[in-house]
Amino acid sequence: MPWSRRALLFIISALTALALIFFSLIGYTAQKSFPRGMSLHGWKIAGKPYFQVAAKLKQTASDFSRITISFTSDRPEAVPASLTMEQLGIQIDMQAFFDSLQLLRSGNRLEQAKNRWTLSGSSLKLTLSFNDIAMQKMLKSVWSPMYEQSPQDARRVITKDDQVEIIPEKAAFRVDEQVLKRTILEWFDNEWNGWVDSSDQISLKLPLLAENPQISAADLEAQGIDRKLSEFTTLYLTNEAGRVHNIQSAAQIVDNTLLGPEEQFDYGQTVRQAETQFGFKEAPVIVNGQLVTGIGGGICQVSSTLYNAVLRGGLEIVERRNHTLPVSYVELGQDATYADGYINFKFRNNTGHYLLIKTQMEENRLTVKVFGRAPSHITYDIESVVVKEVEPSIKYVYNPSLTKEQLIQKGKPGYIVETYRIQFENGQKKESQLISKDTYAAQPVLIATPNDAKAENPSKESSPIVEDGLRGR
């Protein structure tokens, strides 16, 4: 029996201990205040009632939204301005706090006790949330003149006296939103103390991000275009509307052509682009050695003017042929014709630097100028020499209605011409190079005759070649 009494006392003691633990657990989890040693972003909240801390946090978050940031900048594009946190779409993120509060109030008693024990001595950190769309909208509104500016590429300008000038590039500035958010977060983590500090304004330097253009002054300078190398001018009649249109069209396409080192210029590409962009009109063209009306007449005045400028710039000629007939706007041996699919004009940029080709049309003058970099003490001149004059032949055309022979066309002589490029060094002749030997066909004397036996009918070309234009009519 004595053993039974001891057992009974043991059971009663155990039950009493369990009861004490149970009621202690109930008392521990029933607390409506934060556990010991707990703090919220530097504010000691241990022992403070849940509702009190929650109310204080909500009020602090509301006060935070009214804090004004005074922005300054060294750049004139970014004028000083003041904006509130609310205007910038910035607010205190209270989610971490309420998540912790939920842990203390949810689950069974054992889970609540475990969470309460875990949170004891912890330090909750508040953070900020950013509404990126609201921030971008506000920044663009306040600094709209700055945002309206676009990056401007550096530009190369040729002055009236043919000097090469480079206008520097200009960057456009935007607010660096990532740096701005990071700066405000650092201030919030390290300096903000909204629990006791009633300050409602801070000062920040507005972080700016330069949006740079694609082409800089250094890029243009590296191309090496620093002076005029050569130029050439030809004259044309302004009363030939179709021809003037065709010359202007081709010249506009050639204007501002930029060639890299060793790059080749192809006049055929110019012709195709001009026809697509402007279209060609009727004007005299050369078909199988005869001057007739066609489409695109005049385009060879552009290629010939360009050819002369290129020759005087010391550039390498890749492909070039003279007209079948002499032309009026350049000397014999100094023209460059074009026949679609047959004859082209090409040259190569052999200067080792970039080339810029400019064209000008003033009154009845077409001028082509070549800009680049080459030794200034080296210059070139062109000289053409007629080595042979070819007398025109006489051709008879049968006309039975005539009683005697009749002159239809006066003949014109043909020529064989040699053209030389002469190089000068410091004004002294250094060498002379034969660059072409050209033949211009003589135009026959045409006589109509009633004598059938005397007449001859010239054979017709199956595929007529059109020069100085695209198509005969």
Q: What is the strand arrangement across the widest sheet?
A: 13-21-20-14
Q: What summary fits the major beta sheet? A: 4 strands, antiparallel
Rg of Cα set = 46 Å
Total number of strands: 29
The helix/strand class is alpha+beta
Q: Mean of residue pLDDT?
A: 87
Distance between the termini: 141 Å
Count the DSSP helices.
Answer: 11
Account of the protein in words:
The protein is α+β, with helices and mostly antiparallel strands and 473 residues long. Helix content is 30%, strand content 32%. A 4-stranded antiparallel β-sheet has the order 13-21-20-14. A hairpin with a 2-residue loop joins strand 16 and strand 17.
Describe the structure using short key phrases:
single chain; 473 residues; alpha+beta; four-stranded antiparallel beta sheet
Summarize this entry quickly.
It contains eleven helices and 29 strands.
In terms of topology, how is this protein built?
Layout: H1 2-29, E1 39-40, E2 43-44, H2 50-65, E3 68-72, E4 81-84, E5 90-93, H3 95-105, H4 109-119, E6 123-124, E7 127-130, H5 132-142, H6 144-148, E8 155-158, E9 164-167, E10 172-175, H7 177-190, E11 201-205, E12 208-211, H8 217-223, E13 227-235, H9 241-254, E14 257-259, E15 264-266, H10 267-277, E16 282-287, E17 290-295, H11 299-312, E18 316-319, E19 346-348, E20 355-362, E21 365-372, E22 378-390, E23 394-398, E24 406-409, E25 414-425, E26 428-440, E27 445-449, E28 466-467, E29 471-472
Parallel strand pairs: 1-6, 3-11, 23-27
Antiparallel strand pairs: 1-2, 3-4, 5-7, 8-9, 10-12, 13-21, 14-20, 15-19, 16-17, 16-28, 17-29, 18-19, 20-21, 22-25, 24-27, 25-26
